[in-house]
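Suppose you are handed a protein chain with no further information: no name, no annotation, nothing but its sequence. What can you learn? This example shows the usual starting point.
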Amino acid sequence: MDSEQFRKHGKEVIDFIADFYDNVREHEITPSIEPGHVAKSFPKDAPEKPDNWQTVFEDFSRTILPGVTSWNSPQFHGYYPSGASYASILGSILTEGLGTVGVTWISNPVCTELEMVTLNWLGKLLGLPEEFLNCSSGPGGGVIQGHASEAVFVCLSAAKDKMIRKFMSFNSSLNEDEIRSKLVAYSSDQSNSSVEKGLSSRFREDSASEGR
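A reasonable first move is to predict its three-dimensional structure. Written in structure tokens, the prediction is:
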């Protein structure tokens, strides 16, 4: 796909999304498909030659769209959709279009700094003490997570790490495995499944010795 095709088909996709949202109330909330729907509709092996955009979009309309749960329907109350406004879609296009990765400041300086500014805004809106903000002299700050389950995992990992460091400062003869085996977390029986998954994670570091 060259730049002219990208311009043409990009407009088609924008029009499709706008039409989709204009008629979102008419869409089926839960798809009426059977498990294995996609596997039965696509070839078992990846194609050796690319399809043109029209064919790809026809496959999308025929196979993918009928199996989509309408999270953005006003009649959907199963979870908590939060990222599908027109503004957020345009923001995603800009982000993906730049094609950068913000893993560190040097890999994409403005990505890191924009995250810091945005989290400061959020912290102030929540009324958090300055110690929680990036602009403080303390260990404040944070990272925007991709989804709720990821955020829960990071919070639980941070809590475990904090307690391990705390106990090791009291008794240097203890090792991490001993402390981890004694940690207990309490949760409501109504908690999201991501809480249990996050608590069950373990980490082991092996040496990268030759021959392994």
